[in-house]
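Hey, can you fold this?
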Amino acid sequence: MKIKLRTFANTNDQPSMIHKLKKEGKFNYIDTGEGTPIIILHGLMGGLSNFDGVTNFFPDKGYRILLPELPIYKMSILKTNVKNFAKYVNDFINHMGFKEVILVGNSLGGHIGLYYTKTFPEKVKSLVITGSSGLYESAMGGSFPKRGSYEYVKQKAEDVFYDPKVATKELVDEVFESINDRNKLIRTLAIAKSAIRHNMAKDLPKMKTPTCIIWGKNDKVTPPEVAVEFNELLPDSELFWIEKCGHAAMMEHPDKFNELLYSWLQKRGL
């Protein structure tokens, strides 16, 4: 059996040790800071700790950072798709009582953010995407060989980053465990098919939400030309590059990522 994988950004499902995970009904999330709400959407195998740099920087700048755990492996197979993840985000925003938010998404999280913005434009003050799927179906990565090939998984994980050392043994172990878990494997396939089905190319020209695109110049999962296409299709977007950077800019270069994002938000008065 072959399956497409979207991203290996970071597979640690544990939140940052600095921030406590809150649990309210069906929602598990980190909530820190006060001010304009920024909701962060993680990737398919991305843990909340991937965004530690953002979580630690922006509360001191007048923003409230919220990181909900998306129910990637918890929905029924029939509901495991981009559309239903966007509905989950809407439920979370309504639960928190927010009228408008800033959305930040990496990889699958960027795709969910795009679909959410298309569906609920009045609720999105601005959108930030990095290494996002939504245009490029090969963002799912290469096909897996037989489950159990640890060295293959290790190589794929290292390919996500410009610096392969970012793909720690802990990270590789977690990805390896995921693809050998039948429940997670089936849902990963469902998400891969959903991401292809929900291609955003025809929707982007109609989406007038201010959008910040931050991209790794060396991204092998969603190559630089994908970022260029996003920038060309979105009516109100700006594209920023980070050199020597792969698919997860907020992990590999958190300081540069924060600098670019904060500067853009200030320029836009957000």
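Oh, and this one too while you're at it.
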Amino acid sequence: MAKISIEERQQYQEKIKPYRDKIVEIAGREKNLLLGIQKEPANTAFRRLTLVDEMLNLASFQIVISLVSQTRLKVKEENALNDGRKSLYKSIIYLEEVVSNYVDVPFSDYEEKLAEIASLTAAKRYNLVRKMGLAINLLENAYGDNTKWRWSFVEMEGRFAAAAKNIMDLKTAVVNTDPRSPDYEPTVYHLRMIKKLLNQAADRYREKYELSTNRIDDFKQGINFLGALRRLLMLLGDRDEAETVKKKLEIWSQKLEADIKRMEVQKKV
């Protein structure tokens, strides 16, 4: 690795100063919003959604700092990336506080939580989760394929998938898939995203189980995401797709049962 000169370091610091300033500003706004929620804990959903957006902006600036470092200094700025990862987690947590973190449950189990954001349009819901998905992709790309955080992203992606599903009002989703609905386009795009994310989360948890942890809990979580996908497809009336997912669920469940028996035998040996 080539040695970085003092001049190069100074130029880098000057380049990232605007981003550093933005990070300080956002951190201040986050603190004020949290203080406001603490003082007035009722009807906080929209303030928490503001926090979701603020944390996504914060993560974006932190990712940009790392990209500038790679471009200018040919060095990956791990501290900035780790800060970005923490900011994204906070963004997901703030969203979960509004819409819940349930994976495979009936809509009625968390429907009440969405009542406070009933006035939030389908387009705004979709745009928020699309922004979150983009930020996660940017962060993963910035870390690269060989990062030690590779498997921790499975949890982040899974929690994002659940939150992206839970922010949608599934009571109106079927109606809004009618081309005559004013919310047709964002609803269709949002549903397409949710299906992809749930299936991806399932596959990633299975991959984590097979290639890394060998923990039954990871395999079970993958099955939970498949269950959530099938539940959504049934609600939407997509019976062919739901049947395909059902078959996948059955195969995975059989594999899980066989693996549990195998592990129990190995313990006795």
